[in-house]
Design brief:
Rossmann fold; alpha/beta; about 40% helix; 7-stranded parallel beta sheet; binds nicotinamide-adenine-dinucleotide; about 325 residues; about 15% strand
Length: about 325
């Protein structure tokens, strides 16, 4: 009997936060995985033992082509990007160079190498501050910063790579990624994030002042802003499902990954206090200009096309996050004792 030779998933940006959790999920799903990463914000230590690693950049077409041919890659999961929305308002050119030009070089190299399947890390930032809720994939796209714009441009590029080169793709629009692996082994590095959950943990661990709660007079159930927090393990499972969808012959698409439930800042803070068993130091502050009142996802397309369902709530996010912070209060930046 002829047996198809094992093919490999190349995880570009697999040494970063969501990438390294996804690598573990792919390995658990029985995949051969190789990580390709320039370690600009990722950590070699975040890549599990036994998973191949190539130190390289999306700007280096030759390195990508060599990685694809030497590891028999047939699908790529592409996380590599700069992700700080605020920074992108100061350095837009850097975001277009890294996120757009880097992705273009990667896709061209994949086409030349005969790879026809890509899962791309997009973001709910493509929608901007949508007012019609829940946010579906058809909601108008109005990015509020160059970061969100860079993700939208790459999605549009992928549409043309499909038309012109039959490169099929799933763009996964994550809502607010949060938490760590269930065992607390891998999570987000403090230095890399301005998101609520890591900033809250920094305040708890005394690595910054009290958490500022921007706006307590929003027209929401408790006056604070509402976002859709999705556990990083559920996100990782979504990537495994997206790879399977492409292997079933699924057409190129963009899919929201959220929970369809919004949580307020107070609810996040109270979930953290209940897990940690201590108060979270905080102060209230006026609303920040440009912040939306409430954002959460419609995830019916993810359910229907990817057969994906998030199974963890904000308590599970806090439990995993707290395990990770206790294990490595300084993330991967400081060697583990
Ligand atoms: N974290 C979130 O809340 C969130 C939300 C929406 C979308 N995203 C997107 O998900 C992806 C992963 O985010 P993350 O939070 O894991 O970020 P991260 O910074 O932890 O991971 C990015 C990884 O890509 C690598 N990388 C960056 N530029 C590269 C390049 N040119 N060549 C090769 N490797 C490169 C980094 O070293 C790092 O390991 C990003 O594309 C981000 O925009 C993240």
């Amino acid at each position: 009997m002829w047996v198809s030779p094992a093919m490999t998933v190349l995880v570009v940006g697999g040494a970063g936060y969501i990438g390294s959790v996804t690598v573990r999920a792919l390995v658990r799903a029985g995949r051969d995985v190789v990580v390709f990463d320039d370690l600009s914000t990722g950590f070699r230590e975040a890549v599990p033992a036994g998973v191949g690693f190539v130190h390289g950049s999306t700007h280096d077409a030759g390195a990508i082509e060599r990685a694809v041919s030497s590891h028999r890659v047939d699908v790529v999961v592409h996380f590599a990007a700069k992700k700080a929305a605020g920074e992108s308002m100061v350095q837009p050119g850097r975001y277009f160079a890294e996120n757009v030009a880097g992705s273009n070089t990667l896709f061209e190299a994949l086409v030349r190498s005969g790879v026809h399947r890509v899962v791309f890390s997009s973001s709910a930032a493509v929608y901007g501050n949508a007012t019609l809720l829940p946010i579906s994939e058809e909601t108008p796209k109005h990015p509020e910063n160059p970061y969100g714009e860079s993700k939208l441009i790459v999605e549009q590029m992928l549409r043309w790579y499909d038309t012109c080169h039959a490169l099929r793709s799933v763009s996964l629009r994550y809502f607010n990624a949060a938490g760590a692996t269930d065992d607390g082994e891998v999570g987000e590095d403090f230095a890399q994030s301005t998101n609520l959950v890591p900033v809250l943990m920094k305040s708890v661990l005394g690595r910054r002042g009290p958490l500022e709660i921007f706006g307590t007079d929003y027209p929401t159930r408790d006056g604070t802003a509402i976002r859709d927090y999705v556990h990083v393990e559920d996100l990782a499972a979504g990537h495994v499902k997206a790879v399977e969808y492409l292997e079933r012959g699924g057409a190129s698409t963009a899919v929201n990954l959220g929970t369809s439930r919004g949580s307020s800042v107070w609810e996040i803070l109270h979930a953290a206090e209940s897990v940690i068993g201590a108060p979270v130091p905080h102060v209230t502050a006026p609303r920040r200009p440009g912040d939306a009142v409430e954002l959460y996802a419609d995830i019916s397309r993810a359910r229907a096309l990817l057969r994906w369902e998030p199974v963890r709530d904000i308590r599970a996010i806090m439990e995993s996050e707290w395990k990770w912070r206790q294990r490595r209060p300084d993330g991967f930046a400081v060697p583990h004792q």
